[in-house]
Amino acid sequence: MTSRQRRAGSVLSWLGVAALLAGCGSGDDANANQDGQFGGAISELRSAAPRVVAGQAEAAAAAQGERDLAFSLLQAVDGEQNLVFSPHSLSAAFAMLTDAAEGQTLAEIEQTMHFGSVNEAFHRSQDALHLALAARNRDELASEDATVDAQILRESNDIWIRRDAEPDSSYLDTLARYYGAGVHQADFGTQPAAVRLAINAKVATDTNALIPELLPPGSISVRTIAALTNALYFKAPWATSFAAPVPGDFHALDGSTAPADMLRQTAEYPYFAGEGFVSVAVPYYGNELELLLIVPDAGQYAAVRRALSSDLLTQLTNARATENVDLTLPQLDLESTLPATETLQAMGMSTPFDAEAAQFPKLRRELANNVFIASVFHQATVAIDEKGTEASAATAIVADVRLSIAEPPPEPKVITVDRPFLFMIRDNPTGSVLFVGQVVAP
């Protein structure tokens, strides 16, 4: 079942659950503590600290970290299956967690997530990037000839904290100043199943129901002290639409050939020819966001994938030139669940997951040395057709307390993309990498 088919069947039920959360949405009142309507399971706590308005130029460091994370993750996961994930969503969720961490726990998060030193400049950079991306939204444009659909780039950051474990006030100040967020106080201890449904409903709403169940059954328990979530939704029309799809062939990584619906367009596109690959950028409405295709030569997929790096991305985006390109690529509808916990641990983030060694003192002062990351969940979807792209991603970091409590179980230049390829959805002005994917079979 594709993400679009799944959404059609689930949107009503999830919106019904989300409606129960109407009383616990992020408000603007300082220290608001409004009871939610989800069985009394949710209320909100927010600092009175005003949101910092960092300039777009300050976003560069956050965007660089996302690019480095994108390629570290790409090299750490299986290269022989279709995949899509969001470096931006993962980075945003962990950025919110950094101010609650210290010692080796913080050092490993900084290194694995490519954050550099977490300080005021780091948080300002995150703030600047979120504000810059929020400015990418564009209204529908109607003319005598045609109507251009709206461009949507929507993001939400939420922190869900155990009701009897109020976080440190300085942590609340950081969340308010740089992430525009408060915390939802939740009854993890008495209503873990209800809170899991509430979190999933919020994520489903924020991803337009493309990700209806980020947290699986058993992921939230009476031991859970906090869950940090990021949800990202993107929908945009092409700057120049493709023709309707036509039947074609895709040559898969395993050597087989399979039928695929192919999109074709001849237009002026940013183009770069590298060693063993070509790259084409297809702009979206507004010419700020783009689909960046990296198409290895036949037989060169593995070598090009290994060579991909932030430096190579910078090289090709700086050196590319506008060319007349006859582009053919497959229509896509992908959805992925990234094994985020195992992947991050393999990349060097071990202490934050260690119940004995993790240090998150600001999440609960009286149990500062008992809080650790139990699991990280990440899902993403992307659908590409002749009109444009719709994509979503969500990340959840679930933190538990080490307690002995029972819990549930856990002439154009002709480019035909008819072979394994990689892609990114990126923001040109900041360099932010919103989505990364690989396609090895139709």
Architecture overview:
The chain is an alpha+beta fold and 442 residues long. The protein has 2 domains: 3-236 and 334-401, Antithrombin, subunit I, domain 2 (Antithrombin, Chain I, domain 2), CATH 3.30.497.10; 239-332 and 412-439, Alpha-1-antitrypsin, domain 1, CATH 2.30.39. Helix content is 27%, strand content 32%. The chain is built from 10 helices and 18 strands. The chain has helices at 3-19, 60-76, 87-98, 103-112, 120-134, 169-179, 192-206, 301-307, 310-319, 340-346; strands spanning 42-45, 83-85, 141-142, 147-148, 152-162, 183-186, 224-237, 246-251, 257-274, 277-283, 289-296, 321-330, 332-338, 371-384, 388-401, 413-416, 421-427, 433-439. Strands 2, 8, 9, 10, 11, 12, 16, 17 and 18 form a 9-stranded mixed beta sheet that branches. It has a 7-stranded mixed beta sheet with strand order 1-6-5-7-15-14-13, sandwiched between helices. Helix 1 (3-19) crosses helix 7, helix 2 (60-76) packs across helix 5 and helix 5 packs across helix 6 (169-179). It is globular and about 65 Å long. Residues 8-39 and 405-410 have low confidence and may be disordered.
Q: Key terms for this structure?
A:
10 helices; single chain; Alpha-1-antitrypsin, domain 1; alpha+beta; Antithrombin, Chain I, domain 2; globular
